[in-house]
Specification:
Elements (H helix, E strand, L loop, with lengths): L7 H15 L16 H7 L8 E14 L2 E8 L2 E8 H4 L6 H10 L5 E10 L5 E12 L9 E3 L2 E3 L5 H6 L1 H7 L3 H21 L3 E2 L5 E2 L11 E4 L4 E5 L4 H9 L4 E9 L11 E10 L3 H20 L3 E4 L2 E4 L5 E4 H9 L8 H10 L10 H12 L8 E4 L21 E6 L2 E8 L4 H16 L10 H8 L5 E7 H9 L24 H6 L4 H9 L13 H14 L9 H21 L1
């Protein structure tokens, strides 16, 4: 990278970096710096009557107040922040005061990592602090942090733009309070789920991420190519069919917490790459799974929040069991007055069109019912509600209902207006399963690009016999949103998918060279604000010479200044390029 592509602060920091090295100080030392304390623990454990406690701490310097021979620094470590008191004579006990006067005051910057050895005390203002007796530079920061500044009660330089925050999560975690807490709570959610499932005797397993058939859900997959086998593969959309194979193989219960990938839209509730927990247990049904799920979510909420309630937006959601159970067709009738029971596909399609839904001939009966529920029902269920007994057309992997013809033993858990979990009494009749797959293929032939493909190996596994089984999938990202009170999925993903970063259009160095501008002066022109060759065509030669000369002087580049005639030649060539481009268009 050319130095002129950096900001002024970045240039100064790199100059400081070099000056430190010239002094014999390595800005990125390799040796271990053995800490023995963290900021929050120091403050929580401090008692005025205790003997003086020696500590070794390290962290990022977030602020600095220099008052002559003494200074205060705010140090941020992995657990929080603590004030450090630094005096010249304490860290420079000998005659040489360079470490304080030059290194600390001039060559260190906000964002640098430092190590401090000292003792804990309380200042006259009552703040628990560390009195430094030695100071070590551990890592030099070359980019300035967006530290919030306040003037007359107004905050400036906030790092709050969502696109910047999600794209540069590392900066977001450093400067914005509470962001790290959300992800610590996420870890608690996952850890608690594992604990509950492990204590129940179920086995955590791993199944393939690359799959020959994208099965286990109705979704559009990502496609990749497996060079070694010379075949196209799919990023998995679900773990279901592989986990069921393990039930066939004799496991009592198996679960997986892992990434799924669906090549679909992105919004406040969806990310194409998401985390899901799927659990399958033999000899259980969907009624047992509803009870198990209630207890699981109640336990998770208590672990994260200390109670069974959590405020999300304007809603206070209670995860205390039991939850309401409502058949899906009853839910649609409750919200629309239309009873889908006994209705044909054509009758349901006509009602959808009457209600203004965008449906077409490719939509089968199941998808039409799904559209009705999504439009009129889903968003109305704020408190946890099990929506049960889905039509068979919507549930190709689910066992037929034991007493309701045409329906299946399936539930979805709705919370805060969104689906959180999907569960079945699993279909274990291999002949029925084959017919369901064939029906899915008929939907695919009609144009449904989310219909399932027949998985012949899974059918073969079922033919060896799968015991009665219940399974569930829970969206971890949405669960974390609920447990942390966040309203967008991006807030609970460290690195959500983003559109490509926008870049300022620039003529290449080669293109500048084609009009006679050397590489070194091309970077100077960019620094002066001329990103495209066409930007200089209306400039005056003497004025342009002055602009680039000022940059040459400011940054002490030492380049030989081009003559006015040379610069006029650049301008003329740029004008000719612009004319040729316009004529071509």
């Amino acid at each position: 990278m050319n130095v002129l592509e950096l900001s002024e602060q970045e240039i100064v920091r790199r100059q400081s970096l070099q000056e430190l090295r010239d002094m014999g100080i390595e800005p990125y030392p390799a040796a271990e710096f053995p800490t023995n304390a963290f900021s929050e623990d120091i403050k929580n454990d401090f008692k005025d009557e205790d003997e003086k406690r020696e500590v070794v701490i390290a962290g990022r310097m977030m602020s600095r107040r220099v008052m002559g021979k003494a200074s205060f620094v705010e140090l941020q470590d992995s657990k929080g922040r603590i004030q450090v008191y630094i005096t010249r004579d304490d860290i420079c006990p000998e005659e040489d005061k360079t470490l304080y006067n030059t290194v600390f005051k001039r060559l260190l910057d906000i964002g640098d990592f430092i190590g401090v050895k000292g003792f804990v005390f309380r200042t006259q203002t009552g703040e628990i602090s560390v009195h430094a007796q030695s100071l070590t530079l551990l890592s030099k920061s070359l980019k300035p942090l967006p530290i919030v500044k306040y003037k007359d009660g107004v905050a400036y330089d906030k790092f709050e733009d969502p696109e910047l925050r999600f794209r540069q999560r590392y900066v977001d975690l450093i400067v914005n309070d509470g962001v790290k807490d959300t992800f610590l709570q996420r870890a608690t959610v996952v850890r608690t789920i594992r604990r509950v499932l492990d204590e129940a005797g179920y086995t955590e397993v791993e199944t393939p991420t690359l799959q020959a058939i994208a099965g286990g859900a109705s979704a559009r997959p990502f496609v990749t190519h497996f060079n070694a086998l010379n075949v196209d593969m799919y990023m998995r959309i679900a773990t279901e069919l592989y986990l069921k194979r393990l039930i066939v193989g004799g496991f009592e219960g198996v679960y997986e917490i892992g990434k799924n990938f669906r090549n679909e839209g992105m919004d406040r509730n969806h990310n194409p790459e998401f985390t899901c927990m799927e659990l399958y247990v033999q000899y259980k049904d969907y009624n047992w799974m509803m009870s198990f799920t209630e207890k699981l979510l109640e336990t998770v909420c208590i672990a994260v929040n200390g109670s069974t309630e959590r405020k999300v937006g304007d809603n206070v959601i209670s995860f205390k069991a039991p939850y309401r159970r409502l058949p899906i067709l009853d839910a649609i009738k409750e919200k629309t007055g239309f009873d889908c029971n006994g209705k044909s596909e054509e009758e349901i399609r006509a009602f959808c069109l009457e209600k203004g839904l965008e449906v077409d001939e490719t939509f089968g009966k199941g998808k039409l019912i799904d559209e009705l529920f999504g439009e009129f029902c889903e968003g109305t269920f704020i408190q946890p509600t099990f929506i049960t007994d889905y039509p068979v057309e919507m549930s190709p992997l689910t066992k037929m209902h034991r007493s309701k013809p045409g329906l299946t033993e399936r539930f979805e858990l709705m919370v805060n207006g969104k689906e959180l979990a999907n569960a079945y009494s699993e279909l274990n009749d291999p002949l029925d399963q084959e017919e369901r797959f064939k029906e899915q293929m008929r939907l695919a032939d009609k144009g449904d690009d989310e219909a399932m493909i027949i998985d012949q190996d899974f059918l073969r596994a079922l033919q060896y016999g799968m015991p009665p089984t219940s399974g569930i999938g829970i969206g971890i990202d949405r669960l974390v949103m609920l447990m942390t009170g966040q309203t967008t999925i991006q807030e609970v993903l460290f690195f959500p998918q983003m559109k490509p970063e926008k870049k300022i259009p620039q003529s290449s160095i080669k293109e500048w060279g084609e009009i006679g501008v050397s590489e070194e002066w091309a970077y100077v022109l960019r620094k002066a604000g001329f990103n495209l060759i066409s930007d200089i065509r209306d400039e005056k030669a003497q004025g342009l010479q002055q602009k680039i000369g000022d940059i040459n002087k400011k940054y002490k580049l030492g380049y030989e200044k081009p003559s006015v005639n040379d610069i006029q030649a650049w301008i003329d060539a740029a004008a000719n390029v612009a004319v040729v481009t316009e004529e071509a268009e």
